[in-house]
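The freezer alarm interrupted the setup, so I double-checked each line after restarting. Inputs confirmed:
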Amino acid sequence: MSTPLLTIADVAVELPTPRGNLRAVDHVDLSLEAGRTLGIVGESGCGKTMLSRAVLQLLPKKAKLTGRVMFDGQDLARLAPESLRRLRGRDLAVVFQDPMTSLNPVLTIGTQLMETIQEHLELDAPAARKRSVELLAAVGIPAPEQRLAQYPHQCSGGMRQRIAIAIALSCEPKLLIADEPTTALDVTIQAQILDLLAREQRRRHMAMIIITHDLGVVAGRADEVAVMYAGRVVERAPTQALFKRMHMPYTEALLAAIPKLETAPHTPLPAISGRPPDPTRPLRGCSFAPRCRYAAGRCHEAKPALASAETAGHLYACFHPIRMAAGVGA
Amino acid sequence: MLNFVVRRLLAMLPVLLAVSLLTFLIASLLPGDLALVILGDQATPENVAALRRDMGLDQPLWWRYLSWLGHVLQGDLGRSFRTGQTVLQAVAERIPVSLQLMLMAEFIGLLIGVPVAIACAARAGGAFDRFMTGSAFAILSMPSFLVAILLIYLFAVELHWLPATGYVPFTEEPLNNLRFFVLPALTLALAEWPGIMRVLRSDMIATLQEDYIALAKAKGLKPARILFVHALKPSSLTLVTVTGINIGRLLGGTLIVESIFALPGIGRLLVGAIYTRDLVILQGVVLLVACGFVIVNFVVDMLYAVLDPRIRHGHA
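Predicted 3D structure, all chains:
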């Protein structure tokens, strides 16, 4: 096995709040090889966005990060600001959730594309302009020449997300982090954007992290899936293996919460009852235990560690793993 | 964009009309009979009545307003009964002084306020930010006559660097003219920059929380580019408003500063007109200053459109 492009080792993020320290990310280990796709799945507040911000070193000022984020042989958490700046946008790119707020409203699309290109690649203005036009065409923007002079508010949401993707791709990054890239978009646009990301990823042989709350998004697109709950990775497996056989009750519950075509009309969705634990008050036992229908005595006493399943590369943190194929549960 | 300009221009008309009415009413409803003021204590009732007839003061108020407005629209704002100067002559003579004072004061104010605001916002809550916010508050609470006297004491009396009072036109002695303006402009600027700094600082802090700033960082842009290109422009709408209001206010001259530094500007003209009960001058100057204020605000609205393309395209 080659050295991974990205290794997240024992990363924890704590945010000070008036009610005490909030543990947003709780000792996470993950790794990703060049050209591969990792899906990080979990509900709101599970720490998936904080984890991505930790990789990008874009955490809030007061956040405390421990552990190592090794990217391309360098620990991002200990990199000098100037070295980090040269890396961001060039080798490490990001697409945020909401394209309505992630583009600057007072700068033209051309400016926002070209400034990244000119910051990192040694191109003069006409060359950067030419590259911008090519990028916009590659992400499926019609009449890219004219778009350069326009402002974000003159484009639709899907269009803006394509532009944001073009910006992210502009310097051929080694790793692209897509943080809920389709959550803010119309359903009809979501698949287009995901397919665009997958296509560009293959073409450029870049690694990608897709962060989502929707297991369906990662199903056909990620090589590996990590399920997060309450700041921890609770199950991690190659995508095929995970959908064939999930061990963690939380993963099963997440999957059950996706509406399916074959269910009869007016069937209530099996939502996960209760709420995630208060992250300022750590639980003694498994953090999912209060909401888990399999939880028994030991689950409330001790935290299960990530353990290997029979399938290679499959890890889960549960004392009472379920042993069924996907789709049958709940 | 053209539509936007026309809309704003049309919106100015009722404002200007209201301004003219208020100006007229203020001058007309002041106690004391204008004819009596002109003729003095020795006037006989017959003389007063005759002059009132001549000046149209015996007509009803609405009629006097309309005929005054008619004259104003033809560019005739009246004539001082003391000096014989027309209002326009008097204002034209004084306005360069007030205009220069306003421009220099606003320029110095922005020169101090904008960089300090950006530096504070870049490290909000840091030592520099806390120190400057505190100082701004302290300076803001000092009245301008006190600042003026302190500056005169320091730079004119102790250091002999600058003259304390006086004025020469720029066209005669440009350098000396500027020397005369430094202290009054600085006095005004010291009162202006805390306001400029505080609005820009808080807008800038809010902008720096935006997603597009996070993306700008993620794009690996230089910190200076993020601050000046990505954050400053979307943060400066309130700053433009405040600057516009300041300019409008200073346009009317500054009674205290012009008096202390003996600058023959609009402020001194107004004070003189009030002391001598020169109602025609008073009324005319107030009207012109108010119109200037309305026009400055129109320019501010236009600047919004320059700063924010969404306003230009009618999206906001």
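Quick read of the result. The two ends of chain A are 38 Å apart (CA to CA).
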